[in-house]
Amino acid sequence: MSLQFLDICQLFEQLSSLKSPESRELNLQEWFKQHQSSIQRRGAPALALLSCLFPEKRADRVYALRTKQLEHMVTKAACLGHSRVSELRRLQGRNGIDFASAAQQVLSATDDFSNPPRSLTVEEVDHTLDRLASTCVFPSPKLQGSITIGYIEAFDELLPVSPPPNLERSLKESARAEIEPCFGTMIGLQELGKTRSIQHCCQLASHKEVSVQRKYDGEYCQIHISRTHSQHHITIFSKNGRDSTMDRVGVHNTIK
Q1: Residue 54 and residue 122: Cα distance in Å, rounded?
Q2: What does the DSSP 8-state code read for residue 236?
Q3: CA dist list (Å): 196 to 200, 207, 213
């Protein structure tokens, strides 16, 4: 059975109502246990779930939509008439609530839910977001290509786990043997902190294992070069993970 997108929405609503980090963590663990049978750990379903849980990690998805554009698309898709559109704008202006909350209020007050439509799956929503991002000029060429030929490429992703402390090191070693860098997939950057002095540096490091980088002037990028591809053998990623190969076409000859 596929995981329903409604389950994700309910999870976020529950987490937003909880105040302490401990209660949120317990709620999250209980949610994963409850939906264990519906969660797939490999392929497109796993990617869809992780994309919904961590949308900010999908730097390849760029929508370039302003609030007014999104409002027009939603009102058209929901077949909202003039009066309901006016009510939608009034709620945003008077109460200062966000567009999503205002749309929910308008639809809840006027639509008939006695015969609710079929619930959408996480994969269906994820595919829709891919198609929406593919219409923009900024997303990853790989994303645009996957939509053009009518399929979503499957990726193996790791879902969050909570192993016992005594197994963490051995599990990390096992994972390293299975996961290898590959051309065209950006290697994630670790979180870096800026220090103001040696004392500040020692305070941040404390007893942790850390790495140190010298900061140079200029813009960070990650360059992938494949010696086996005759075409498109250079891929350049910007710091936020976006495919910027064509944006930096001026340095291609220098790299070659």
Answers
A1: 13
A2: E
A3: 6, 19, 14
Q: Which residue in 191, 211, 186 sits closest to 201, CA to CA?
A: 211
Bridge pairing between strands 234-238 and 221-225: antiparallel
Count the residues in the chain: 256
DSSP 78: T
pLDDT tens-digit readout, 51-81: 999 988 888 787 777 878 888 888 888 888 8
Reported as a single tens digit per residue, the pLDDT across 238-255 is 887 888 888 888 888 888
Residue 132 has φ and ψ, to the nearest 5°, of -65, -45
Cα gap 239→101, rounded to integer Å: 33
Distance CA 123, CA 126 (A): 5
Centre a 10 Å sphere on the Cβ of residue 122 and count the other Cβ atoms it contains. 24
CA distances from 149 to 122, 128, 146, 152 (A): 21, 15, 6, 9
Q: For residue 60, how many C-alpha atoms fall within 13 Å in the half-sphere facing its CB?
A: 18
**pTM across the whole model:** 0.52
